[in-house]
Amino acid sequence: MTPERSPLNAAPIGVFDSGVGGLSVWREILRVLPHESTLYLADQAHVPYGGRSAQEVAALTHAAVSWLLEQGAKLIVIACNTASAAALTSLRQRWPDVPIVGMEPAIKPASQATKTGSVAVLATPGTLRAPRFSSLVKRFANGVQVYTLMGAGLVEMVERNELDGPAVEERLQQIMAPVQDIAIDHLVLGCTHFPFLSDAIQKVVGGNVTLVDPAPAVARQARRVLQNRQLQNKNAGPVSWRFVTTGDLPAFQSATERLIGDILASAENRLNFQAWTNNQLQFSGA
Ligand code: DGL
Description:
four-stranded parallel beta sheet; 2 domains; Rossmann fold
């Protein structure tokens, strides 16, 4: 069997998040890898992950990855900063042969680009408290002042399809208050849900602050990994996109339509979009 014909090459890329946030990474993957099938798993039965213990998040993430691999995923993208912070190391130990791409707040590019010497990171408590985060700051801040902001309530807003309006802006004002009088010029979006709030965030922080979203870099990394392992899909013809939730299917579908409906609509005729509920993903303790 030639590598081109191997079933693994045609297998989907598994993309995981606690909810719909990872769709901000999924759409970037699609941009750089349009000929790949994808299987997106949202663990909405347990969203948000941000306030859970690292052990809990790791257990949930292991269960999710295990399920994606059972479904035949050839590459795993952990499209969630919180899950990556809690589980990336142990996932790679458990499945050393599986390519796993994770996320981390984009401290490095923000620190390199800042002119004022001050940047801020907006993320969940789980991401900001993880040893991975302090190590990132230590390695890449390079004298730049890094302010951390916990985005309490924002993940829930995106999950509810609440992307703009006075309540969202008020929440953002409260969250940004600590850096209100500080000349930050870059704001790192350290949670994959937050790019969907970009317009509201930009309105609150003003036009002089650049929002930094690592999703395009993560998608390029996924492409590099597939190329290095010669795992790209070489088959011409339609690919499939599956979207699976552990939570409520109609709510998931309507959120998906609001967030990436333009992409789904443009693909209707040549792609196979499916969605269904998988209720088997359970938290089974640390
Ligand atoms: N999208 C997840 C992240 O990037 C959200 C975490 C949560 O569920 O709180 O961190």
